[in-house]
Amino acid sequence: MVERSAVIAALDAVTDPVSGQGLHASGLVQGLVVAEDRAGFALEVDRSLVATYAPVRDAAEAALKAIPGMSRVSVILTAEAKPGLGKPARTAGLSKAAVDQGRPKAPVPTDRPAHVRRVLAVASGKGGVGKSTVAVNLAAALAARGLSVGILDADVYGPSLPTMLGISGQPAYEDGAMVPHQAHGLKAMSVGLLTRMDDAMIWRGPMASQAITQMLTQTRWGAAEAPLDVLVVDLPPGTGDVQLTLIQRTPLDGAVIVSTPQEVALADARRAHTLFQKVNVPTLGLIENMSGDVFGQGGAKAEAERLSVPFLGDLPLEAALRQGGDAGRPVVVSDPEGAIAVRFAVIAEQVADSLGL
Ligand SMILES: Nc1ncnc2c1ncn2[C@@H]1O[C@H](COP(=O)(O)OP(=O)(O)OP(=O)(O)O)[C@@H](O)[C@H]1O
Predict the structure, then answer these.
(1) Which residues of 140-168 are buried (b: 16+ CB within 10 A; e: fewer)?
(2) Which SUPFAM superfamilies match (predicted)?
(3) Is residue 125 a known part of a binding site?
(4) Which residues 6+ apart lie within 8 Å of 119 measured at CB?
(5) Where do the domains of the chain lie, and which CATH numbers do they carry?
(6) Mind listing the pLDDT tens digit for each residue in 178-216?
């Protein structure tokens, strides 16, 4: 039985590099759970500081593991997703007041990509909850159903698709259109292929939305004789102005929202749902990721009920999911009969049904 006070003391023995205070005292520790021999929390930091805090996360994890009697520790590093961080709002062509009323002043143009039957967004209210992992594996699970599937990594803050699918290099151009990479049966494009990774952080507002519109409409996703059944769009995390601009400009047929079971993450999922409601994009459901006994279980299911949206399923905290992402080979592809692939198949079936595929 580990005492909460011992956990807090261990956390305070790790120094926050920004404030110079102990980690707990710094206020960065969110949703601390201490239960018998387990502990977990989220380290919530500004997006621009995620790299700075990666070693701090590791140090905190090690410090808690060193407490006598502790058997399981989980620390998730999440990027703060305060509305307003990704200014400017007005580039969307909507005033904030108009958005709040849910009534655009003037219609915002949305270009449907040619020869694409459905566009599905994968969103999260905050960073680090596993949105990209879910997007890639869900895309693979949809492909396993015999659908032709593309994936567009629109995460301007941290494009992870190149790593997760093991692709690199600028896309080829043919007849004025970009040719998507092919990986594991998926057609793939990423903002990370069009820019140096380091530049991705500065793609805000209009630049971000232009780049994504370009990838959406100027990529040869499908052809008249062979349309793409579904394009999965991995949105940037958060519910700020960048996200709003993107979902206004992207012709989305539906969205799934990924959340961890914690209350802090669920509040963000709720905000993401509200954002989609404002632009009349149906939320097809909530997915609980990193579900398990450290952070609890069932939070997203209860939240889905509160929001009156379907609960699509939960995914455990599972090393294979992380390893698959790091190795550029999604688990659904490398272990198609495994328990994780089966969970994704169940989610994919519901999503395909909702999209009429
Ligand atoms: N269910 C899981 N079990 C274990 N590791 C996971 C799980 N889901 C995601 N991860 C790992 O957590 C990290 C963050 O996941 P991912 O990049 O998919 O999150 P994200 O929400 O897209 O993040 P960002 O908002 O920064 O783009 C990755 O290292 C990933 O491999």
Answers:
(1) bbbbbeebbbbbbbbbbbbbbbbbbbebe
(2) Fe-S cluster assembly (FSCA) domain-like (SSF117916), P-loop containing nucleoside triphosphate hydrolases (SSF52540)
(3) yes
(4) 112, 113, 216, 230, 231, 233, 250, 251, 252, 253
(5) 4-79 (3.30.300.130), 109-354 (3.40.50.300)
(6) 899 999 999 999 988 876 544 444 455 566 677 788 788
11 vs 164: CA distance, rounded Å: 32
The band of 285, judged by pLDDT with boundaries at 50, 70 and 90, is very high
| Contact yes or no for 30/40 (Cβ under 8 A) | no
The alpha helices in 107-240, defined as continuous H runs, are: 131-144, 161-165, 191-194, 205-217
Q: How far apart are CA 154 and CA 21, in angstroms?
A: 36
ipTM above 0.95, yes or no: yes
Task: Give the chain's length.
Answer: 357
Name which residue sits closest to atom 16 of ligand 1, judged by CA.
Answer: 130
Nearest protein Cα to ligand 1, atom 9: 130
Atom of ligand 1 nearest to the CA of 126: 25
Choose which residue among 58, 132, 260, 262 to substitute to test ligand 1 binding: the one with the highest number of ligand atoms within 8 A of its C-beta: 132
**For residue 325, which atom of ligand 1 is closest to its CA?**
31
